[in-house]
Structure formats: C-alpha cells, structure tokens
Design brief:
Layout (H helix, E strand, L loop, with lengths): L23 H20 L2 H16 L4 E5 L1 H12 L1 H5 L6 E5 L19 H8 L7 E5 L6 H12 L3 E6 L12 E4 L14 H20 L16 H15 L3 H11 L2 H9 L1
Parallel strand pairs: 1-2, 1-3, 3-4, 4-5
Helix pairs in contact: 1-7, 2-7, 3-7, 5-6, 8-9, 9-10
C-alpha cells in the first residue's frame, strides 16, 4: 500500500497553517503567493511539455486522437480542455477526448470509488476503439489514481504513447508515462486540495498542449482563431473584423462573406480564388 504522506500534495503548507485566523486580504494575498509557485513549477517542465505537444500533433496528423484521462478536478480539467477545441479551432470533438472517472455524472458530482477502479479506464479506451495511432495523457495531481494508471499501463502494453501531468515526483503514474510532466507545486494551500495549485498548473499545461498542437496543425493564422465556430454575435463580429483587416473589405461585405462560408479561413480562401 502506498504511503501517501511522502507525497508533497498531502503535506501541510507552512504559509497557511493559520488560515482560520486570517483576514480575507491575508488569505488572498498568501494564496496568490502560492499560485505564483504553480506558475514557476510549470516553467521548469516546459521541455517535457514541448515533447508532449510534438507527440500529440504527430498523433493527430497520422489520423489518431489524444485522450485525456483523470478523476475529480484533474478529470474535469481534461474534459474542459477537450471541449474547447471544436469552438476555438473548428475541429471535430472526436480528436481530443476527455475521459473522467465516473463518466459525465462526475463532472458535477463525485462518483464514489470511481477513481479506484484500475480496469475501468482501459475499458473506456477500448470502447472507443483505441489504436497505436492514438496518444493517452493521464492527469492526476497525486500521480496515484488507479483509473488513470491502469489505462496508461495497458496503453503502453499495446504500443500506445503515453504522457502524464502530476504534482509529485517519481509517482506510479509517471512510471507508466513515455513523457512525464512533473510540475512540483509543493503542499497545497488547503492541505490536500489539489484543485488549487495543482489544478492551476494543470490548466496552464493543458492550454499549452492543445493550443500549440492546433497551431502546428494550421488552425491559427498569426495569433487569430481563423477556424473558430461562429456560435454567437460576438464571434461573428470578431470574424468579420478579421476579414476586414485581411482583405480590406467594408464591414458589411466582410460579414456577408463570413456567413456565406462559415469561417474566416474559408471566407478568405474563397475570396482569393
């Protein structure tokens, strides 16, 4: 049985020992100081993040997919990041997939013992017909979540590239990863509450991975979301202004062109034919 007390995510943070006696300003000031540590911890693992990005981009280019797997906060962040890909970059929802222990119910409410099932993660991957074209990235602050570890172990056994994001060094999850992103954020502000610094660092890294992958796949021009879905008036206006800037058209003509073709890129390409 693992001795969880040796992991930094389970230790007490010396800067927040007296939280229940602090003023609101003292709480947010010391919390902000700790959040800066999360940012610094991500800086130290950028080479590993870059490797994960390149592997994920290669997976998509060869017709594969990227699976995020996690439980609790980690799982929710994976699902959140995956769900942003279609509206932001105009890609289908089948390319970056977030799986959470306990299924969609666990997005809002905890599902008892779901993360402790070491077999369920791989079962969910096989239900989605995973192949060696795909990549699996486990997310777990502790690095000890059986749902994730079991899936990653089986993935490697089947020749599938694996990566992980964790807040503890030398964890069981990292042992199953071809690239381990170990961002050591230190003890959490509220002891064991990995939705805090660990969650902040995880979100930063997930942003880096999917954004960089989409840039590599040509879904961004300059720094513009030229393939975004036009799902509301704000985005239609943004897209119209992009076309005005790119083609020099007046606003009305640019908007009509955008709505005719459905994305900035398609509209610009069609106009230039």
């Amino acid at each position: 049985m693992l001795d969880l007390t040796k992991f930094t995510t389970e230790q007490r943070n010396q800067s927040s020992m007296d939280l229940d006696t602090m003023t609101s300003l003292q709480i947010v000031t010391t919390m902000n100081d700790e959040d800066l540590r999360a940012v610094q911890s991500v800086t130290k693992v950028l080479p590993q993040v870059a490797t994960a990005i390149d592997w994920a981009a290669e997976a998509l280019e060869r017709g594969g997919r990227v699976f995020y797997m996690g439980a609790g906060t980690s799982g929710r962040l994976g699902v959140l990041d995956a769900s942003e890909i279609p509206p932001t970059f105009g890609m289908p929802p089948t390319l970056v997939i977030g799986l959470i222990a306990g299924g969609d119910t666990a997005l809002r409410n905890p599902v008892e013992n779901a993360e402790d099932d070491i077999h369920r993660g791989w079962e969910e991957l096989t239900e989605r017909n995973i192949t060696d074209k795909d990549t699996v990235i486990g997310i777990a602050a502790s690095g000890t979540t059986p749902y994730v570890i079991g899936a990653m172990h089986e993935a490697r056994e089947h020749g599938i590239l694996t990566g992980c994001i964790t807040s503890n060094p030398d964890s069981p999850m990292a042992a199953e990863a071809d690239v381990a992103i170990e961002m050591i954020v230190g003890p959490e502000y509220v002891t064991g509450s990995s939705r805090m610094k660990s969650g902040t660092g995880q979100k930063m890294i997930l942003n880096m991975i999917t954004t960089s992958v989409m840039i590599q796949l040509g879904r961004v021009k300059g720094n513009k979301m030229v393939n975004m879905q036009l799902s509301n008036k704000k985005l239609v206006d943004r897209g119209t202004r992009m076309i005005v800037e790119e083609l020099g058209l007046d606003y009305g003509k640019a908007k009509a062109l955008l709505l005719m073709h459905g994305s900035v890129k398609k509209a610009v390409d069609a106009y230039r034919i």
